[in-house]
Structures are given as C-alpha cells and as structure tokens.
Amino acid sequence: MSKEQRARLDAMLRRPRPEKPPTIEEIRAGFEALMSTIPVPGGIRTTRTVLGDRPALRVAPESGPRAGTILYFHGGGWVSGSPEAALSLTGHLVTRTGRTAYSVDYRLAPEHPFPAAIEDTLGAYRALLDGGTDPSALVFAGDSAGGGLAVTTCLAARDAGLPLPAALLAFSPGLDATRTGESMDTRAAHDPVFTRAAVEHTGAMCLAGADPRHPLLSPAVCADLTGFPPMLLQVGTNEILLDDSTRLAARARAAGVDVILDVTAGVPHVFPAFAGSLDEADEALDRAALFLDQRLRAAERAGLTP
Questions:
Q1: Which CATH number is correct for 3-298, 3.10.129.10, 3.40.1190.10, 3.30.450.20, 3.40.50.1820?
Q2: Closest of 142, 119, 148 to residue 52, by C-alpha
Q3: Residue 270 has what pLDDT?
C-alpha cells in the first residue's frame, strides 16, 4: 500500500466547496469531466444494445467470454453518469473475470425520480431472464448509486417473485436516503468527494417527496434481506457513506445472508475505479474478481453458454 498514492488521489479529488448548490447541468458536467480522466482498460469490446426498454452497453472480453454474465449499474448519485462513464470499472471486471457485462443506461432524476431507476434496472434483469440467461450464471454489480441499485434491484426482484442472481458486488454503495449513518459526520473531514449538503441536494432530486425510509431507498436501515444471495461490499474509510455498507452488512448477517464487508483504510469513494494509479484499487478489483469467479464457477461446470 502506498501513502503517497493515496495522498495524490486525495489531492486530485478535493475541490473548493461551492457556496451555493450546483445546478443539475453543473453536476452532470463535473461528473463526466472527472470520469473522463480515468483510463479504460484494453482488451474489451463494447457494443450498444437494449435491455428491456432501456439502452445498455455490452462489454465483452476480446479473447472470447467465459460462462456467466455481469449486470452492471453505474454510479452518479441517481442524477448523473452513464455506462460509458463507468467503463473503467466495468472493463476491469470483464478483463479480470473473462465474463461479459451489460451496463444499463437507467433513467436519471430529477427528470425521472424514484422509482424510475429501479424500474429500469429490474426491467433489464427481466429481459436477460426472458432471453434465456440462467440467474445462477448472473451477478449484479455497481458503484455508488449503482451499488445501491444492485441491492435494491435484488429486493425488487425478490418481491416480484423472480429468481435471484448468484451474487451481488457493490463498490461504495449508496444505501441510506435517511442519511443517519454516523460516518456522515465522523468521516466528513476525511472525505474528498462528498459533503452531507451535496448528497442531500442530489438525494432530494431522486426522492421528489418520497419517504426516505422506503426499503428501496434505505435498505441499510429498513430492508429485510431474507433470501438474498452472497454479497461483497467494498468501501473505503475516507467516505461519509462508510456506514451505508457497514449497516447493510449487519442486516445481511442478521438475515442469514453470506456477506463480505471489505473495508480499505485511507481510500475514498469508489476507490477501485483508480486501478493503475492506486495499489489498493488493483488489489480490491482482484478480490472482487475472485468473488465473482467463485460464484459463477457453477455456471461453467454446468456448461452454460455466456
């Protein structure tokens, strides 16, 4: 682990705090500008496609895929982001596992507030199932808001009576619209990305008056996780959303769910995106790939096609 790498990343991510809340156009432009600086790994092929009634990006290894599918949900606070902006993380999972990923371009708030995004991600999952994908050969993955969607889409699928995926992988997931985690305050000085005011600003766009204690908005404090597949939650100590993951892990354990809470010290929100410039990011992605491989091996043994 490199203190120098972590210090450089922290300095790069810190920006002057705006005096007034940014507009949605400013939020989206800033997010796209940041994500455009993150390199995308080689060895992948991307194809535009459609899942359900939403655009999606198919990301496949150039060498030919192994059995198993990753359904990926991008981050961006439910108000920004795209499959292209998340291509670094999606690409690393594809190259490290040899599996094909589909990244969903779900609708964004404030134009499309809750529950639009979950309707879209659940629709994408239904489309894959209807197309013949075996749920035991599929995993949900996502970062930040998309990590939250990996959890809430699984909740929605379970409540709709659908078969559940083989596993969930979430990078720094957003899992609590009530913003009641202690880390919202105790980690505030350490977080180079978020402030309470910033996440409450974008959160209000997503909520649009909905009760933040709805299980699909705050699964870390309100959801029953009974019957969930195994989960891997990766999070850093330098983020105010730390307790979103720690509390979800506790709820999962209480519900008898296999869960790995993977906390890395001194790193920021969605730190695995910085693979190649942060040793901890590459190590975390290796652990994530191992977790997915372990959960998808059954698909290979059964001879399921990618």
A1: 3.40.50.1820
A2: 119
A3: 98
CB 245 within 8 A of CB 183: no
Residue 29, token pair as written in the block: 């432009």
**pLDDT tens, position by position, 13-39:** 998 777 789 999 999 999 999 999 999
**CA distances from residue 180 to 24, 76, 244 in whole angstroms, order as listed:** 25, 20, 9
CB-CB neighbours of 22 under 10 Å:
14
Provide CB contacts within 8 A for 12, sequence distance 6+: none
Its sign, for the CA torsion 197, 242, 116, 225, is: negative
In a structure prediction context, what are the per-residue pLDDT tens digits for the chain, which is 306 residues long?
588 999 999 999 998 777 789 999 999 999 999 999 999 999 999 999 999 999 999 999 998 889 999 999 999 999 999 999 999 999 999 999 999 999 999 999 999 999 999 999 999 999 999 999 999 999 999 999 999 999 999 999 999 999 999 999 999 999 999 999 999 999 999 999 999 999 999 999 999 999 999 999 999 999 999 999 999 999 999 999 999 999 999 999 999 999 999 999 999 999 999 999 999 999 999 999 999 999 998 766 766 656
- φ, ψ of residue 245 to 5 degrees: the values are -75, -45
Asked whether 155 and 208 are in contact (CB, 8 A), the reply is no
Tokens encoding 46: 């991307």
Please state whether beta strands 69-73 and 231-236 pair in parallel, antiparallel, or not at all (unpaired): unpaired
Query: 138-143 and 167-171: which strand pairing?
Result: parallel
Give the residue numbers annotated as catalytic, written as ranges: 144, 239, 269
Residue partners of 301: CB distance under 8 A and separation at least 6: none
